[in-house]
Amino acid sequence: MSGVTLKQLKKTYNPGTKDAFYAVKGIDLEIRDKEFMVLVGPSGCGKSTTLRMIAGLEEASSGDLCIGDRRVNDVLPKNRGVAMVFQNYALYPHMTVADNMAFGLKLRKTPKAEIQQRVEQAADTLGLSSMLNRKPKALSGGQRQRVALGRAIVRKPDVFLFDEPLSNLDAKMRVQMRAEISKLHASLNATMIYVTHDQTEAMTMGDRICVMKDGEIMQVDEPINIYRNPTNMFTAGFIGLPQMNFLHGSVMEADGGYYFVNQATGVDRIEFTARLGEIARAHLGKPLVLGVRPEHFSACEADDPWAIHARVEVGEPLGAESFIHLSTANGDKLVVRLVGIVQSNIGQSLSVKPNLDEVHLFDAESGLRLEAPHVLA
Amino acid sequence: MCASRLHFFLALLLCKIAFFSITVTAESTVSIRTTDFAPGPDALFNIAGKAEMAVYRAFREKYPNIRPEGNSLSLKLEGPAGEAPLLMSIAGRTAPDVIHVNTRQSGSYIGRNFLLPLDEYINSEQTAAEAKELGEYDDNTMYRDELEERVRPQIWDAVSRVDSEGKRHFYFLPFSYFVRVMAYNKTVFQEAGLDPDKDYPKTWDELAAVAQQIQNPREDRYGIILGKEGGAGWTSLPFFFSMGSKIVEREEGTGKWVARFNDAGAVQAADFYSRLVDAPWTDEDGKQRYGVGMSSGEAWSIWDRGRIGMSLLYINDILINADDHISSMSPGELGLVPVPFAPSGQSITELHVRGLGVCATTEDPEKIAASWKFLRFVGSPAAERVIVQTYVENGYASFINPEKLVQHGYSEYAATVPAQWKHTLKFALENSLPEPYGENCQVYIERASKPLQSAFSEGVPRITDDGTRLARLQELYDTAVKEINEKMLGQIPEDEMVFRRKVASAVMLLVAVSFVLMFTYIWRLFSGSEGEVKRGFFGWIKKYWLAYVLLAPALASIFVFNYYPLAVGARMAFLDYNVIGESTFVGVDNFAAVLFDSVFWVSVLRTAEYVFWSLLLVFLPPIILALCLSELPRASVLFRVLYYLPALVSGLIVMLMWKMFFDPSEAGALNQVLAILDFGPQKWLQDKSQAMVSIIIPLAWAGMGPGCLIYLAALKTVPEDLYEASAIDGAGFLGRIWHITLPTIRPLVMIQLIFVLIGAFQSADNVLVMTAGGPDHATHVIGLEIFYDAYVYLRFGVAIAIAWILGFFLIGLTMFQMKRISRMTFTTAKS
Ligand SMILES: Nc1ncnc2c1ncn2[C@@H]1O[C@H](COP(=O)(O)OP(=O)(O)OP(=O)(O)O)[C@@H](O)[C@H]1O
Ligand SMILES: [Mg+2]
Questions:
Q1: Around ion ligand 2, which residues have CB less than 5 A away?
Q2: Is A137 part of any domain?
Q3: What pLDDT does B582 receive?
Q4: How far apart are CA B334 and CA B337, in angstroms?
Q5: Tens of pLDDT, residues B66-75
């Protein structure tokens, strides 16, 4: 049993001074045993700080940190049963690959034979067997990161911690390593906490994703849930590429139906479905935000009742799909994804309509989603 | 502004050229440079300087066309090293035309051809009257009668040499005679219950008794000043002379100088002297005491305070209180008597003669002629009159040799000089022998203290049984004499010499082979890699010509200033090198001399000690300090600045500053600090066991900051996540330093280590400044031995031989260093 539990965990840098900075603002998170938890969030949101507190490299300002059922706030890093893989590999430059991997075991006075066996096994798994006697300098970036992985593996820790381990690698290498780490997770059966700001990594690797912002947790859920049911505008905007479109406006009632209207002009009236009308009814006239993912738009005739009129700013035909950047009359920017190659000229006017089954309504002030969660079809 | 300055300088230049041409065209004015009797700062401050200036002025009056100028030997060194600057200037051909010569140096100067024979100007065969009779009289020549007046019979052999054809050549003329006498403080005598006019010691027995009666450390009163360390040999000289010991003697057959200070009289003198210093006795209170003298470094300052009864010091044939330590004592306080009579029934003291000679590097006949006039004048009765007059006019009449007062027309003052002083001076001048003056006799001064020092450290004077004590002393002196004869005279039996040459050849071969190996090794390290494309000579020239053109000045200067001297030096190792005149080829004898010289091996040992302390105090602390500072979360900039500040003080100043801190008296800066901590005063540089460390401490102090900064800079390059990774891997504080920090800065540590090691092996300058190798060779490192051999004993060949051996010691280090350097890569930007 070695889940990791954070209870009201806080980190304040330079507490009590005018430079005081609240990097982590009292978060609660329960990472289950053998789970692959991904921490994502924009730069500076406190992911690394959280991870480093778990590792023991940073002292928690308050709150409880438990690994398994042991409170480890005051336990030295080496005694927490964790291993960490750093973004810059942090390999010992003067030691060979083998020595790098064996270092932790040697310090723990593990018998020589066992060290050798574990190192060889790890090297075998990671395809490093032929490089055991090289120094890190003589390795490529991917190989170095594998050594760093190996160094973590041989220790057989309860919890693996990764701090953006792939961000120094090129795209292809990243894809490959991503798969390897996932495979490792499957075979090692250990708890892994993985920090990244790359949502592809988050979506593909995590059992669950924890989205953070400004030292707070925005949402914790399985990747698909996060994608389909973001509980707030931040998560909705953060996960998904290109970003979800946000149309600002309010809902008004007319002719027994509900319409979403752009406040400034009142032109693009979008008639709501019954489901949306149901939710919107309680918020008539209030500033709301309509969230639509780019793939939930489709091109339509200009006089379509749900049409939104806009001008093309940039077209990005990618082959299987095309991303078109649009700007509406009141200045809202939209990105829509259309299937196939769609030719478009800059300045050309284009009408698109959202798939109203897939849109979300947010309260513009709190950023929280208004509707009840979808039931997965 | 700038232009007007330029005009000013041009005008100045023109003036100078004009002036110069006048001096040249005037033809009659000759400038000579001299070590003595030239205008200098002394003329302002002390009476001796004033007198010299007066003589200078009188000379200028007499010979307006000769202009003596001071010399520029600004470097002043301690002990025997004091003679080095002049020797260096002779070697460098920048020596003055007229040089100071004293008895002790004369043999070496003459032997090394530093002095021009004065044959042209001295006629020792005829008197002036005889010459006039024959019509051969020349005003510019010094005839026998004048010579006899000026050169006392004891030193006839010191100032001249008889060549193989029996002709006598003179090399220098004395201008002043100093004799050692016994000074005593009448007030101290009275305090000790002695009658100063009657109870002064006349014999050795009385000396011991009187000194013992005065000696009372509890009342801060001591019997007599006695050298115990390096000065012992010199202080005790009159006792040896009085016992009839020859000290050194010219061997009949060979004409070589041989040490004889182990004869029977000598050992008795040494016994008496050493017992004065350290014989056990019981005072009135039944307290056990040793010795009746004061030998510490502060002895003279205690004397100046008026707390010591007796001392042996120089008086001058003109000025009785020439010595600073009696110059301010009145006739009522100061007693001057001859050194006490020895059991042999004699009282013979040491005569120290100062004179001037013409330096052999002077070649211009006009300058030689002018120099002769100068040195003849400054020792002449006319000059003496000027000196006496100056002293009298400055109120020193009562300190002047009464005979001279009468002679120069100041008889009215003669009565003011105490009769005792007058008799003492006369007696001493008549009963004195010159200090050793044979070739290489400076070595005597250095070595003669050794048996005494050994005796003191073994506690020989404390042995009560006369037989045992004398026997041991005899042994010590025999050994010392044997050694000195080897070093001074190369007096080694033939079969022994054959053996030594064999050993020396073997060692030389080893040295040569290892140098060749090292050069091939370095050559291979640096010659290009094999992967290089062969492009033929012209292709190569075409590609790299510019590089070689640019390199040429650097290469040329390295060859001219490094390799050429190296080659010349290599040759010198096989010569008995003479700065002036012929050098003879001596094969491996220089190496033999080095390898079988105990002092050389002592210096090897001292160097090892020096290296050890350097590692401990210079090399290690910056590393530790840097590690600590890098751990420091706050205020580290403050500490860095604090530790770096000393580095802003330049090297020599650091040394001199610390030399002051190391003042062994209670007033010394460090001793005051110790006093606060309730420790007694330490002798630092003057204590054999502390001297070496004391030399290194300033280096450590000055080197800490810069060394530490280099490491700190390197420590900054250690990525933070390495520390974090190691913390998770399980490394503690020490583990982190050992496994992460040290390996990262290791290349730097190695390079620093090599620098410190090589620097330590070669060190000489700082030791010279601090202790000049003393006390008793306790800091006599190899570098210093080279310096002494070259510039004090003028054994350049031997010095170079030692340098080669030192180089041999450093080969390993050099190879290592080269290997490191060869691994560094230098790249140019590729276009
Ligand atoms: N030692 C420190 N002192 C003060 N503030 C700090 C310190 N370390 C981090 N911070 C601040 O804490 C915040 C969170 O830092 P953290 O490294 O956890 O961000 P992150 O989410 O890992 O970002 P990134 O994706 O860029 O790595 C940042 O705004 C950072 O400026
Ligand atoms: Mg981070």
A1: A 48
A2: yes
A3: 76
A4: 10
A5: 888 876 555 5
Positions of CATH 1.10.3720.10 in chain B: 592-649+697-823
Residues A97 and A187 reside in one and the same domain: yes
Asked if residue A332 belongs to a domain, the reply is yes
Partner-chain contact A86 B724, CB within 8 Å: yes
Nearest to A94 among B719, B725, B743 (CB): B743
Average pLDDT, chain B: 83
CATH number at A303 reads 2.40.50.140
Residues B209-223: tens digit of each pLDDT: 999 999 988 888 999
- pLDDT tens, B35-71? 888 777 666 677 888 888 899 999 999 999 988 887 6
Take atom 31 of ligand 1 and give the residue whose Cα is closest: A44
- For the record, the structure tokens of B624 come out as 């530790």
Q: Which positions of chain B have pLDDT values less than 70?
A: 1-27, 41-44, 71-83, 442-443, 445-446, 487-491, 528-535, 633-636, 823-831
What CA–CA distance (Å, rounded) separates A150 from B511? 52
- Give the domain CATH number at A156: 3.40.50.300
Residues of chain B with CATH 3.40.190.10: 176-487
Q: Any residues with CB less than 8 A from the CB of B362 and at least 6 apart, and which?
A: B32, B97, B116, B368, B371
Which ligand sits nearest to residue A45's alpha carbon? 1
Are A92 and B740 a contacting pair at CB < 8 A? yes
Determine the topology of domain B176-487 in CATH. D-Maltodextrin-Binding Protein; domain 2 (3.40.190)
Which residue range is the domain that position A135 belongs to? 4-232
Q: How many CA atoms lie within 13 A of B443 on its CB side?
A: 27
Show residues of chain B in contact with A82, CB under 8 Å.
Answer: 728
- Compute the mean pLDDT over every residue in chain A, rounded to the nearest whole number: 89
Reported as a single tens digit per residue, the pLDDT across A246-281 is: 988 888 888 778 888 876 555 567 888 878 888 888
The CATH T-level fold of domain B592-649+697-823 is MetI-like fold (1.10.3720)
> Which residues make Cβ contacts (< 8 Å) with residue A324, sequence separation at least 6?
A312, A314, A315, A316, A335, A336, A338, A342, A344, A350
Name the residue type at position B681: P
* 729-758 of B, contacting A, C-beta below 8 A: 729-731, 735, 739-740, 743-744, 746
Same-domain status, A139 and A115 = yes
For an interface test with A, give the residue of B717, B720, B728, B740 to mutate (most A CBs within 10 A). Answer: B728
Average of per-residue pLDDT across A131-155: 91
Domain termination residue (choose one: A166, A198, A232): A232
Per-residue pLDDT at A159? 94
* DSSP 8-state code for residue A368: B
Number of domains in chain A: 2
pTM of the model: 0.69
